[in-house]
Amino acid sequence: MKELILIIVTAALINNVVLNQFLGICSFLGVSSKMKASASLGVAVIFVITLASAVASLLYDFVLKPFNLDYLKTIVFILVIAALVQIVEMFIKKTSPGLYQALGIYLPLITTNCAVLGVALTNVQNEYTFIESVLAGFGTGVGYTIAIVLLAGIRGRLDEEAIPKPFRGAPIVFLCAALMSIAFMGFSGLS
Amino acid sequence: MNACKERLYNGIVKENPTFVLMLGMCPTLAVSTAAINGLGMGFSTLAVLVLSNLIISLLRKVIPDEVRLPAYIVIVASLVTVTELLIKAYLPSIYSALGLYIPLIVVNCIILGRAEAYANKAHPLPAVFDGIGMGLGFTIALTALGMIRELVGAGTLFGIQILPKSVEPIGIFVKAPGAFLVLGFMIAVLNFFNVKNRSSEMVTGCDGCCAACAKGPACGKEAEK
């Protein structure tokens, strides 16, 4: 039990997916200008990463490994993730229009979010079991959400500040991310 | 021939994927801990980009429009797998340094972005030069970032000691925060020198995200409406 909790904490805080592993930077920078959009994207990412980790883990253990097709994992995982996102989108659209309104637009965006593929590949590399993979996926999604919501909050305040002209736009966001990353390094004491 | 030269200039300077288009940020930040890693990642991406542009350009009349994205992904993923196996076999030190980020070239937005924005409409030769230009632009950016971080963070350059031993290197520059810090300052310096003809507006939604190039209307911009 202790190890399982440690997996979640490691994935969410110590090895934060954005600030430490640099996965999903594109949407982290692109979407974080709006708080509401950031939170919705965060929830969608948690959902998709958890599901994708589960499916990728099952597929690797029962199909790729027994048939010695290890080298096909990149191709298989990216296709499975793309298909999965499409299916989830259609399913949510039919069953719960409210949720679709909130998440729908962000779901396709996630297909090419490298965090999803990254987690699936890391799980295989670490030889996680099914349950460990799902928890690692969930933890990673939570870590992503924490990071993007925090950055959105900071950027909301930046709008009113007098920033030197060359630093406006992307550079100041990178500097904020650098400071957040230093702060998150403090969590490494937890492990 | 002029079109080819124009493509090279476009990729390296005018639409530099890292500093101007801000694409492919994940590998840029992650592997630039040392100059040699940046160079390795840059050339791996260059190889995949040139071949994928060539194949997609040759197949542009064969692939039906509706399924073009899955088709591109399969082409790119196959090329990446081949590259990964080659690096693993011939350059094991680079392989262990780049690790996870080699398979992640698949989701590098530069590659799908060029396929969608240029290669699927162009003749094979300009498409190849577009790939070379973009790939070199990416390689230069990664190597420059890696050189600064390695010099300040470890006092070396391509593994050779440059700073005298008495100078204590600033370790944080080769750790995660250093990546954000150096890239932020580099873009700010570039902005400073040509503030006028560059939009210093932060790219939002579509322009900055990986899915943007591939997914068009499905991405963030639509969301803001």
SSE layout:
The complex is a heterodimer of chains A (191) and B (225).
Chain A: H1 2-14, H2 25-31, H3 35-64, H4 73-95, H5 97-103, H6 106-111, H7 114-125, H8 130-158, H9 170-185
Helix pairs in contact in A: 1-8, 3-4, 3-7, 3-8, 4-5, 4-7, 7-8, 8-9
Chain B: H1 2-14, H2 25-31, H3 35-58, H4 68-90, H5 92-98, H6 109-119, H7 124-154, E1 156-157, E2 160-161, H8 176-193, H9 210-215, H10 220-224
Antiparallel strand pairs in B: 1-2
Helix pairs in contact in B: 1-7, 3-4, 3-6, 3-7, 4-5, 4-6, 6-7, 7-8
In short:
Chain A is an all-alpha fold and 191 residues long.
Features:
heterodimer; B: 225 residues; two-stranded antiparallel sheet; disordered C terminus
Describe this protein's structure:
Chain A is mainly alpha-helical and 191 residues long. Chain A contains nine helices and no strands. The radius of gyration of chain A is 17 Å and the shape is globular. Chain A has helices at residues 2-14, 25-31, 35-64, 73-95, 97-103, 106-111, 114-125, 130-158, 170-185. Chain B is mostly helical. Chain B is built from ten helices and two strands, in the order αααααααββααα. Chain B has a two-stranded antiparallel sheet. In chain B, helix 1 packs parallel to helix 7 (124-154), helix 4 (68-90) packs across helix 6 and helix 7 packs across helix 8. The model of chain B is unreliable at 196-225 (pLDDT under 50). At the A-B interface, helix 2, helix 4, helix 6, helix 7 and helix 9 of A face helix 2, helix 4, helix 8, helix 9 and helix 10 of B.
Strand proportion of chain B, as a percent range, falls in: under 5%
- Categorize the overall geometry of chain B: globular
The chain pair forming the largest interface, with residue counts per chain, is:
A-B, 54 and 63 residues
- Mean pLDDT of chain B comes to 82
What is the percent of helical residues of chain B?
A: 55-70%
